[in-house]
Amino acid sequence: MRPEHPIVLITGASSGFGEAMARLLASQGCHLALGARRVERVKALAEELQKAYGIRTFAGSVDTRHTASVDTFVAEAVEALGGLHVIVANAGLASGTFKMWETPDEDLEAMMRTNVEGVVKTIRAGLPHVRKAGWGHVFFIGSTAGHQAYEGGSVYCASKFGVKAMARSLRLEVNGEQIRVTSVDPGMAETEFSNVRLKDDAKAAAVYQGVKPLTAYDVAECVRWCLMLPDHVNIDEIQVKCTDQAAVHKLHRRS
Question: pLDDT tens-digit profile of 197-218?
């Protein structure tokens, strides 16, 4: 049932976790469909990986907030690559550190539409093709914020608690099919996440001061490991944190 070279679709593949996953899975011989709003970045990445590893790639523009954008991207990717086996619903973001009553509509809608609606739209579009292939794996990229809430993160935490619920529900809904479902839930990781959230590079750098956080490749390795396990093994959830982080709010910072 498992193909020798699975076809993997990754949203949010222009940087961070998505780019790292693309690079690592390409090195394992996976064919890749890479999507992001920053389409020139994913096109360059797809071309680089195709040349480096001899895999087949497709790169396209996708904004997971919009159904038509997702449906078009998935359809074009499947047509170009000849099918689909693995979905990595990676696109997501945090915007601001507002208390609940201070959260502007712009930030509220950005997080809920991307982190919740975008995940549904991505999986809704891709799952029929995974079913047709007869073997597959769906990855949700959650967060430790989906397990423990914190001040200034009410909407972001709500969205990631939602991701956890969706992953658990889908796991029940596809039971009996040869489709695995995994949620990878990282803690502090140094990517563009804090730059996007805080809209200030100096403040973003301060988040990681005195800490050795996870890298994007640490999280990508979790995806690779789960994907490469024997077909009868499903890793439901992985919470992964750096050793300096004991909980969402508990960090060891070196002076």
Answer: 777 778 778 888 999 999 999 9
**Average pLDDT value for the chain:** 95
pTM value? 0.95
Residue 73 maps to a domain: yes
Q: Give dist(CA 99, CA 171) in Å, integer.
A: 33
Q: Catalytic residue, from 150, 156, 208, 217: name it.
A: 156
Range of the domain at 119: 7-251
Q: How far is residue 119's CA from residue 34's CA, in Å, rounded to a whole number? A: 15
Would you call 156 a catalytic residue per the annotation? Answer: yes
Looking at the chain, how many residues does it have?
A: 255
Structural domain count of the chain: 1
H or E, element range at 8: strand 7-11
Asked whether residue 194 carries a pLDDT value surpassing 80, the answer given is no
223 in a structural domain: yes
